[in-house]
Design brief:
The structure holds 3 protein chains of 3 kinds.
Chain A lengths: L27 E5 L5 E6 L3 H20 L2 H17 L1 H10 L4 H21 L3 H5 L1 E2 L6 E9 L2 E5 L7 H12 L3 E5 L6 H11 L8 E4 L3 H10 L5 E5 L3 H11 L5 E5 L12 H4 L2 E9 L3
Parallel strand pairs in A: 5-6, 5-8, 6-7, 8-9
Antiparallel strand pairs in A: 1-2, 3-4, 4-10
Helix pairs in contact in A: 2-4, 3-4, 4-6, 8-9
Chain B lengths: L30 E2 L1 E3 L2 E3 L6 E6 L4 E7 L3 H16 L1 H4 L2 H17 L1 H12 L3 H22 L11 E4 L2 E5 L5 H14 L3 E5 L6 H12 L7 E3 L4 H9 L5 E5 L2 H10 L6 E5 L5 E4 L5 H13 L11 E5 H16 L19 H16 L3 E4 L14 E4 L6 H4 L6 E7 L2 H9 L6 E5 L3 H10 L4 E4 L18 E2 L12 E4 L1
Parallel strand pairs in B: 1-5, 7-8, 7-10, 8-9, 10-11, 12-13, 12-17, 13-16, 15-16, 17-18
Antiparallel strand pairs in B: 2-3, 4-5, 6-20, 11-19, 14-15
Chain C lengths: L1 H6 L15 H12 L5 H13 L1 E4 L7 H12 L13 E4 L4 H7 L6 E5 L10 H14 L3 E5 L2 H5 L3 H15 L3 E5 L8 H14 L3 E3 L11 H18 L4 E3 L7 H15 L11 E3 L2 H14 L12
The chains are: A alpha/beta, B alpha/beta, C alpha/beta.
Amino acid sequence: MASKRIAVAKTYKIYIGGKFPRTESGRYFTLEDKKGKVIANMCRGSRKDFRNAVVAARNAQTGWAKTSAYLRGQILYRIAEMLEGRREQFIAELKLQGATQRAAETEVDLSIDRLIYFAGWTDKYQQIFSAVNPVSSSHFNFSVLEPTGVVSILAPDDTSLLGLIANVAPAIAGGNTCVVLASESKPLSAVSFAEVLHASDVPGGVVNILTGFRAELTEHFASHMDVNAVIYCDGSKAVAKTVQVLAADNIKRVIARNQVDWSGDAENPYLIRDTQEVKTTWHPIGV
Amino acid sequence: MATAENKLAFDGGWGYDPAPESTDHIEIKSRYGLFINGEFVKPEMGKYFDTVNPATEERLSRIADASQADVDKAVAAARAAYRGPWGRMKPAERGKYIYRISRIIQERAREFSVIESLDGGKPIRESRDIDVPLAAAHFFYYAGWADKLDYAFPGRRAKSLGVAGQIIPWNFPLLMASWKIAPALACGNTVVLKPAETTPLTALKLAEVIADAGLPPGVVNIVTGAGATGAAIVEHPGVDKVAFTGSTNVGRMIQKKLAGTNKKYTLELGGKAANIIFADAAIDQAVEGIVNGIFFNQGHVCCAGSRLFVQESVADEVIAKLKDRMETLIVGDPMDKNTDIGAINSSMQLEKIRSYLKIGKSEGGEMHQSSCSLPKKGYWCRPTIFTGVSQSSRVVQEEIFGPVLAIQTFRRYDEALVKANNTPYGLSGGIWTDKGSKIFKMTQDLRAGVVWANTFNKFDPTSPFGGYKESGVGREGGLHGLDAYVKLGA
Amino acid sequence: MALSAVKKSVRLPDLSNVPSVDEVGVDERVARFQSRSIKKSSKVEALKLILSMIDLTTLEGQDTPGKVRQLCQKAIHLHDAMPGLPHVAAVCVYPTMVSVARKALAGHDINIASVATAFPSGMSTLQVKLDDTRMAVKAGATEIDMVISRGRFLAGDYRYVFDEIVAVKEACGDAHLKVILETGELGTLDQVRRASVLAMHAGADFIKTSTGKIQPAATMQVTLTMLQAIRDFYRDTGKMIGMKPAGGISTSKLAIHYLVMLHETLGNAWMTPEWFRFGASSLANDVLMQLMKQSTGVYQSADYFSKD
């Protein structure tokens, strides 16, 4: 009698600089299903993991910002293609973390479509938000958007895949690089999404994804002096205060995204603009 | 080769007689109250402070020191006006009030320039030709936006925020008031504004204009005072938005104080702009740009080009020409129409600048100042340059906010770029070259909100202004300046 | 090495090294000069200085000995009702009128400038231009105002233009050479700067903006560009070159702005008729009216000042 095949379980790791290391701290936390059965041992990312991720994000930032808008669009589209190809896996993972079949399907489909949505914006938002300014003197004057730089993102806890993509996609569509803290209660999709990114021509370091405890990492996401903007989702008043106080040390841009219906009103270019700077250039007009 | 014998001489010989702007048509009251709910009222605590002419050290007027109770009253008046007439007014009508303000400033332009120069020490030429016309233009520009906001935010509806608390600095008192008030009103907000304690007079004159323009009481309230008054505005629960222009340190404090509230904020903070001269630049115009960059308004400019980078092959020439040009700058009485550099705004600021001159020398920098004579009374600083300094020098890293330029040389493009971006600030930058593609590359690579290419220190109401990194959050001016005063809904 | 050292003073410079000029930046600088407010004694001093710097000019096809004699009279007697006035620096006439002017100005310390070299177009052969120059000098001209070959310059034939100036300079003998760039035909300030550098290296004692026959003639923008070229030439060689804006400067106010510009660009050493001239036909009377106003406090009428 042939023995039953043993499935190969997946080791869920973090994603830094285009690599999948384990947390440098060696710590983990256990993810259980509703019945208390162990699903996975997740990396309990540390502040040093975050620090390494910011270094990776910073190193990738200039190159990503200079990648043509067209190519960024193609890469975002590629992410969607890869996600579509692994649709069943993501549905299964969401179900594993408690979603119904239908909710899981909806979330994965919306996630794919959201990527397509922002893929289409990469070469258009500039045209919506930039300006040629009719100054009175003999100068040509124009304002364009540029990425703010490195963005730290405290992703929503509830919609663990869609919420993460809905925050990451507009940030990278606009040429930023980011470090994301995945949903603490449902971290599986984030790690699998990292694998999708890895297979999608996204340069290493453009998106870095950590798993771990929000209570432990929030302050570092907010305070790091080489992070230019922090996005936090669904923070309590106390969290909001902590983030804003710490962010002020280097005048970070603080973007609060509370009670956003990620399946509803979250398709607009203003989400891209949140992590953009306006740069205005003057030049004389003469012979 | 240029030699010492071939030096030009600018002193002695023909000179310009004093050409003072007349002040006899100017009325400055001996005492000013607070402008709350459409009228000037006495401060609750009855306290006043002096505002001093920095060119003579003489008192110009006594100014009310607003306490918490006064700020409460001002915010309440602003709230009532927001809930009442201003909030209910048709946007087009709102715009017409703002147009009126612009027109009255134009009519009273001479008066505004004279008072600006008396109170702040800036040369009358600048207040007359730059500050006051730009202030009027700013109101005129934003007036027109009042009924067109739907076109500014495609796919979104812009709604007003409520009461805006605004705190402005002493370097461009009237102009900064207009930068703050005009877009706030255009977007339908009401305002509580605090001018700087050393330069309150033109804001109080603006209050007169606003009253004359017939704006409903409480739409604009002007409260005077120092840091405590500012803190009372920032922390007031009745304020929906805070707009601040000033130092990065105070901006940081404000950002921290606002943490956990839902108040929107914009910050225009410090800078240490790089002004980069390539060998292929139009050198004579570049020298003029250096002068405009650092000596405009005594260097009391957050976007001043205070770090000069000159390509080594032209460094000697540029510095020699700069020194010649400095000799022709006239330092002295701000009221004289020929004055190029007026008085340092306050004794405190002069002390700060002087301390940096000491620091620069002690760090091994070679200091050069123009040879001009200075008046006996008042606060003055000769135009100053430091050579032989490096990125690690404090005069290179820190914002001095005075007519003090730190000069470094570079050899290659990337060297200039790396040094230019090697700062926590990111407000502005300058680049001088005759090569178009180099301009576009540099303007892309500089991490700064405003890039002046082959020009410097230019401002216009249509042109957004504001910084990257520690130079601030948000933009003022232009289409992008509307953002600061609206919330966007579906 | 020795050869190049000898020839250095008359070598065509590499014009590609001439710094470029930004028009808007020049406009802004000029606006600053114009915002200077010159009052009281500094104004009187400036007005007198301006009078002393004028090259009183008549350059018309209808010029006659009679007209030139009248002009010379004016040069000597600017306005005898006002004592203590300086006389103008020179009268400027066509070569055929030089001898008339010399007679009329005999015994007076007023220079005789003559245009030459097929003025104003310069469209002739070198030989004709040299003959023209020698004739004027022989007739008594102490200053020669030549024109450059603009067509050659614009075509990039700098060598031709350079050699022509060198040759004319030689033909001048002891007479001072002013080289007219005719900036109104050069198109850009970059070209003005290049032509200035070329002319100075070729031996010009003065560089001059215009013939007065082409619009625009002198502008402050063009003059500033030339003054800056003079300053750089002085820095590099130690040699002072004079400047003459000509055409279109007809009011005291504008002339004072030019002086401010001169003062703040080249400094005191150039603030004399030896180094700065105004080529003008109607400026003198406006200056006289202003001087009279300064001394009497009463605004003046042109009817009280002789036209020639």
